[in-house]
Amino acid sequence: MSVYEYVAKDKTGNKLYGTYSDINNVAVLREELAKVGYVLLKAKRGKASTKKRKKIKRSEVVAFAYKFSGMYSAGLSIVTCLQTLEEQADNQSFKCIITDIKQGIETGSSLKSAFEKYRNIFSDFFLGMIEAGETGGKLSEALEMSARYLEKQADLKRKVKSAFAYPIAVSIVCLIVIFGLLVFIVPVFSKMYKQLHVSLPGPTQALIDLSNLITNHWWAILILTAPTIIILQRLVGEPAVKEWWDYFKLNMPVFAKLNRMVVISKFTRTLAMLASVGLSLIEALDVASQVAHNQRLTKISEELQAAVKTGSPLAASMGKYDIFPPMITQLTASGEQAGRLPEMLSKGADFIEKDIDRIIHALLVKLEPTLTLIMGIIVGFLLMAVYLPMFDYMSHLK
């Protein structure tokens, strides 16, 4: 497959300049352009990028959605919007993606189909909103809502990350201190105790054995690390393991409530926005469960869809599962009765996100001193194990 830069014209004589990737030759390019009413005037083979692809940030996707929404609501065509966004993109990787999406639209693909291959970048929610916007004639609103949603999710993720920066930093420092003691300090004391012929207590002997393992057999640890990582990656991909992990996250000590709130926040916010642009409740439930990325919630969503198909109210079906806070169930019931389900679900998501902020703050108040104490105990135990034989030796000298 090659990259071609081309010049074409439409039936009115207007010229179009563009780039087409993943195509065999000029003849195929001419056929592809003819499908959408363009006549190829000139084409030359372009240079495929050999640079390492730059990672696409969520902030870039949010900005893309906002700009796309603004230009489309101003009356510009989808192709023109994408052409402008392609020219404005600073990230070369993102530019290539927009180019490919634009080419897909030009060759007759639906907007959702053009974005489909980049689902991992734009998310299941974004694709669901595009599909709902296309079918319901609310594409501009769908794009703007998508941008707001992605922005909220990015803020939520940033809050969680920044909140746990201190505990993670403390844990890393603790590991560095332990590693330094085992590699540099313990071997020195080990040699000294051998020269003094001091009998070693159990903790000291275990510490010396661990130090010898790390310093003398580090190569074996490295060799075993690679296959261990590969095996773990394969296990994580197994449905049964993923299901167990998702269940554990919702029930794990300390962090269970926070994990539940984050999952329900994603689910509720997605359901509210998809319903607001005209997507059916069953389709909205399906997409919302995919966005939440939790196997247990996916199963619950399937059961909710089955209940809705039989005519049961959504709130009554949600009330059967303890994963949904009572407030969400009550707001859902109010929304169904008043015909304002998207609005009430959106308010519920706002309440949950405020709860998440409070939970994070409460966790940090407890975690920071706890981690500091644990770090002190571990380091203190290591130092005690190192100096125990010395204390015993000094007592014999007296």
Main features:
398 residues, mainly alpha, Receptor-associated Protein, 3 domains, three-stranded antiparallel sheet, 17 helices
Description:
With 398 residues, this protein is mainly alpha-helical. The protein folds into three domains: 2-45; 58-153, Receptor-associated Protein; 164-398, Type II secretion system (T2SS), domain F (Receptor-associated Protein), CATH 1.20.81.30. Helix content is 76%, strand content 6%. The protein contains 17 helices and three strands. The protein has helices at 26-35, 58-73, 78-88, 92-106, 111-116, 119-136, 139-163, 165-196, 202-216, 218-237, 239-251, 256-276, 281-292, 295-309, 314-318, 326-338, 341-397; strands at 2-9, 15-23, 39-45. The chain has a three-stranded antiparallel beta sheet with strand order 2-1-3. A hairpin with a 5-residue loop joins β1 (2-9) and β2 (15-23). α7 packs antiparallel against α12 (256-276), α8 (165-196) packs across α9 and α12 (256-276) packs antiparallel against α17. Mean pLDDT is 84; it is low at 48-52.
